Amino acid sequence: xxxxxxxxxxxxxxxxxxxxTDDLFEALQARILGDEWPAGGRLPSERELAESYDxxxxxxxxxxxxxxxxxxVTVRQGQGVSVTDFRRTGSLELASPFILHGRDVREKAxxxxxxxxxxxRVLEFVVERFIERYQPADLLVLETAHRAxxxxxxxRSAPGLxxxxxxxxxxxxxxxxxxxxxxxxxxxxxxxxxxxxxxSGIVVFEPSLSQFTSKFLAAAxxxxxxxxxxxxxxxxxxxxxxxxxxxxxxxGIPPKGKDAP
Length: 261
Description:
The protein is mainly alpha-helical. It is 65% helix and 3% strand. The chain contains twelve helices and two strands; from the N terminus they run ααααββαααααααα. A two-stranded antiparallel sheet has the order 1-2. A hairpin with a 3-residue loop joins β1 and β2. It is elongated, with a radius of gyration of 22 Å. The relative contact order is 0.10.
């Protein structure tokens, strides 16, 4: 059993003074997502937290309120702050910080694997709406992003490819003119971007993203939804095979046809 938290040993975990609410929220969130404070336990008292982070009670309470909104804690008057089981009560917004702060590599790899199919399904919906509703000016945005994708591939720049791919899909989502499509797609696309940024080893240059976007734009000009969807599925099915091959061992999943150790 770990020793009780005190203001002294809490101070050892931080090296900052007068934290803003955003900084304090992120610092506390990191410790919860890293399972330093496990589900069912309680955070140190407000006094201890305020002293250890050298902040005032108002700033701390606002950070705690945001933790509660994120599904990380439950605040009850007179009973302190309890850590919730964020794996059950949290939402998609926690996935990106969990990839950064979580301690279990297997669990993080599994989360990325679990993202692949929902990402593709949501993009299919976005493509349908896009082909139906885009305006000519929207294609110019996508063509600009396509050229940036091609340039990044030429020099094999992972950061450049991530940025250009993000711009392409942001343009695609915006052109749907569908608020539900935007709300569904953006969290997944932002998570996909963050994962690639933090785990650059899973950025895939083959198959070529620019070849896909070139053919996709041709289908879009023709308002050919069926072809656009086939292109999307084929591209991501191929990419996901590569990503799964890289991450399945990290997730501790035995090869098909073999028993787990």
